[in-house]
Design a protein that fits this description.
Elements: H1 5-28, E1 30-31, E2 42-43, H2 44-47, E3 53-55, H3 66-75, E4 102-106, H4 113-125, E5 135-140, H5 141-144, E6 151-152, H6 154-161, H7 170-173, E7 178-183, E8 207-208, H8 209-218, E9 226-231, E10 246-250, H9 255-265, H10 269-280, H11 283-288, H12 292-307, H13 318-337, H14 345-369, H15 376-381, H16 389-392, E11 400-404, E12 410-414, H17 417-433, H18 437-444, H19 453-465, H20 473-482, H21 485-490, H22 502-513, H23 522-534, H24 539-549, H25 560-572, E13 577-581, H26 589-594, E14 602-606, H27 614-624, E15 633-635, H28 643-654, E16 662-664, E17 670-671
Parallel strand pairs: 4-9, 4-10, 5-7, 7-9, 13-14, 14-15, 15-16
Antiparallel strand pairs: 1-2, 3-10, 6-8, 11-12, 16-17
Helix pairs in contact: 1-4, 9-10, 12-13, 13-14, 14-17, 17-20, 19-20, 19-22, 20-23, 23-25, 24-25, 27-28
Length: 680
Amino acid sequence: MNLDPQTQTDRGLQEVLDEHKISLKKRCERVTEGSGETGSGTLLNRIYTELYITEGQSEEVNTQHEVRQLESASKKKTLHDTPIKCHDIFKASADQQRRIRVVLTNGVAGVGKTFSVQKFTLDWAEGLENQDVGLVVVLSFRELNLIRDERFSLLKLLHVFHPTLQKVPAQQLSVWKLLFIFDGLDESRLALDFINNEVVCDVTQKASVNVLLTNLIQGNLLPSALVWITSRPAAANQIPPTRVDRLTEVRGFTDPQKDEYFRRRFSDEEQSSTIISHIKTSRSLHIMCLIPVFCWITATVLDHMWTTDQRGELPKTLTDMYSHFLLVQTKRKKQKYHEGHETSPQELMEADGEVLLKLGRLAFEHLEKGSIMFYQEDLEQCGLDVTEASVFSGVCTEIFRRESVIFQKTVYCFVHLSVQEFLAAVYMFHCFTHRKTKVLEDFLGEDYKYSSLEDFLVRAMEKSLKSRNGHLDLFVRFLHGLSLESNQRLLGGLLGQTDNSPETIQRAINNLKEMNSKNISPDRSINIFHCLIEMKDLSVHQEIQEFMKSENRSEEILSEIQCSALCYMLQMSEEVLDELDLNKYNTTYEGRRRLIPAVRNCRKAELKSCWLSDISCSSLASALISNPSSLRELDLRGNDLQASGVKLLSDLVESPHYRLETLRTGIDNVITAAKPQHMK
């Protein structure tokens, strides 16, 4: 029987579509969960735990360190959020009348954005969800970076990145309901210009990749096509809010989802229960477990310790966890490639030390630049031979991941930013113990003269505090944790020998407690307290716990470091304070300034006569538009606000994210701001 041309065309297109779905299924059905390469690993559906995705506008461009963002996320009340399943990302709720065409999904590194994209795509390819969508096209920015200087038509772009679609004609793209998924905007090296942009309306018209993307997002090109973009928070502002129909946030795992993840990983009930209980004893570990990748790191370490009968000394700090993680991977390398006697940490680290330190150098140099993606030339500059098997197998498979992309060019990255920060700290500590003066001077300043461990830590802390966005916060926490004998013993000879006698460690702890942060943001000062925790000095934490129980708080004198600790604990408290009056605390003016970020977790704040500086005002402004923030009434009378402070507050009142109902400044007496209609 002869088929008419139209039927033959339809059948041909259906075959192309079926082939494309098979290709996507192969691409998405297995995940590497931090290790290996694309296409290997575990079945996604076997380990996938539904992530917590919420809808809502971002309050500001969030450039603070992502661990601080995780702390904020852990405080967000889920009762008032609108959770969305990843396959419903384009489905409007009952009270939404508008069409949702462009969705922007935010989330910190490793929180599960790419897993969500893979789950959505896999469910579509298997015919389970979103079957009203005719074609799903997945493109990562790390792939698009490789052709950023070339010109393509949109049709050719599809053919290049998805060879299964080569037989699709141009006219079919406007017939099918298309969904374009652009994953990893934060990794983009494209210059997206939504103002002075060339207009492209034809899918066969050639243009640069960034021009094609902006026209697709603006709706000039395939106006009926859906667009989904994922990004880390700091990069999300590259897309104008007016071009986004729905903004969502992937918050990672809720507490029940964390439990579910570990119960899926460990079939032994006793083992999973012990691990879950242990994680909850450490606030830093519990918060980090919002991130699926950190759950994987934790599971890898604790499973190894459980099976090797080391249950009595489970990691309590982040440095502990990552030191154990590095050791576990070196042991796995030995088991994979060598047989023989049990090897000590010292021997393991000596065997792989050279490669690990080169990776540490790569991690450190690019942490300074703010880069998380590397190419072959970046590795070669750090002395890494990309053909050396040990770089990409065994120890480094779990730590360092390569992804083969278009044109056979390879992109490299650490499995998570925190792994990069840890290896960077290992490298810098090694440079200190081996007196690599040039590296130390480049980092700490030309005036740095090699001296004691405690002086080195002070200079590193001061350097990190000067960072506006805190990009060195976790790095400097790791540096302090690595100074402990327990972690140096774990890492064998990797760090080198240093004086970490009890007297030296105590001097380093005292330096942290006495550190002057007069010209530093109160938000940034909290990291000093976290460094104490990494050094396993819990004295300040315990003192503040006792202070919060005390009935005579006004009689107790608080040091500045105690104020930082109190500020952190008030922010993280489940209970919202009715009133925070800084003048009721018996401390210095600097101590009161360190308490300012705690206004996020109170309904009324009294900051009268607190000698607010420009830095304090900036910290206060950030708190006022943060999410979550319960503050509704603020009294700033008695502060000699400079012109910059007055302008900052004036601009704040005009912000759509301003939630205050009453602001007293002493300038205009009482300013009452009606909440915007979209605020509840």
